[in-house]
Design brief:
D-Maltodextrin-Binding Protein, domain 2, globular, 12 strands, 2 domains, two-stranded antiparallel ribbon
């Protein structure tokens, strides 16, 4: 028997001995448990669009496998996601509400805010377009036309990133969000809100990713998507370990590095519906 074979036999014998000792000393310790540690858990609070679109379910397994981790996703509006970060209930926040994100980091609750991807908001409506939104040059003009026609408009109404954008458009269009019977707030996520708008044959602002995921399930069509103000950036923000020492800051930073790196960018760019990109990796860009 040569030296290589002897060494291999010795290694196998030692490994078998470790398993036996482990089984004797630690009840329930199996061969598999002896070889593998339990995955580390990373708690992520995120906007519903990253979840409803199917993005996270498609790209996170690669990160989890590479880092022996499990990302526990809490999908809610960006405002609520950031609040979970402020309370130290999660390790990382994935949001698309720039002003809220800036306040979150400025107050010291969030650190290392990193742009990850972007897409655009789209205003959907019935194909017959009763408010003649298609002729509007800007999102604010589109909202003014909807108000003038008193056409039904469905709003998230949940302090999400999409709701923040709605309020920005209303501020420019009329100065404030109107209180009217034709403006319907759902208080729900993007997916359920799209379904309600489709049932009501109403207008609704949505992100591109969730629209593409639901496109074949509804009859609403894009009536406004060319306004530069409809740019929709997403960022990851780690919860500050100096505020909350118990957070898994190291794993949060690993996820930020992975999603902003080449592998994460490729995964985001490769996530499509009907051959169309749902999100664009990296920094937001200006349209030509």
């Amino acid at each position: 028997m040569n030296n290589v074979a002897l060494k291999l036999r010795s290694v196998k014998a030692f490994a078998a001995l470790v398993v036996v000792v482990c089984s004797a000393m630690l009840p329930g310790c199996s061969r598999q448990e002896a070889k593998r540690e339990a995955p580390a858990v990373l708690k992520m609070a995120t906007t519903t669009s990253t979840d409803n679109s199917g993005l996270l379910g498609a790209i996170l397994p690669a990160f989890e496998k590479a880092h022996n981790a499990k990302v526990a996703v809490i999908a809610t509006g960006s405002g609520k996601a950031i609040k979970l970060g402020e309370n130290g209930d999660v390790d990382i926040v994935f949001a698309h509400a720039p002003e809220l994100e800036e306040a979150f980091t400025a107050s010291g609750f969030g650190v290392n805010r990193t742009p990850i991807m972007y897409n655009y908001f789209i205003l959907l409506g019935p194909d017959e377009d009763p408010a003649e939104v298609r002729g509007a040059g800007t999102a604010s003009e589109a909202y003014r036309r909807i108000a003038a026609a008193q056409a039904t408009l469905v709003s998230r109404g949940d302090e999400s990133g999409t709701h923040q954008k709605e309020k920005e458009i209303w501020a420019e269009a009329t100065g404030s969000v109107p209180k009217a019977t034709w403006l319907m707030e759902t208080g729900q996520g993007m997916g359920p809100s799209l379904q309600i708008a489709d049932e009501k044959r109403a207008y609704i602002l949505t992100d591109r990713g969730t629209y593409l995921a639901y496109k074949e399930k509804m009859s609403l069509v894009p009536v406004m998507e060319s306004d530069e103000t409809l740019l929709n950036p997403y960022s990851l923000i780690a919860v500050n370990p100096e505020k909350y020492p118990g957070v898994n800051y190291n794993l949060a930073m690993e996820l930020i590095r992975w999603m902003s790196g080449e592998e994460g960018k490729a995964a985001i760019s490769g996530f499509k519906a009907g051959g169309e990109s749902m999100f664009f990796a990296g920094e937001m860009e200006k349209r030509d």
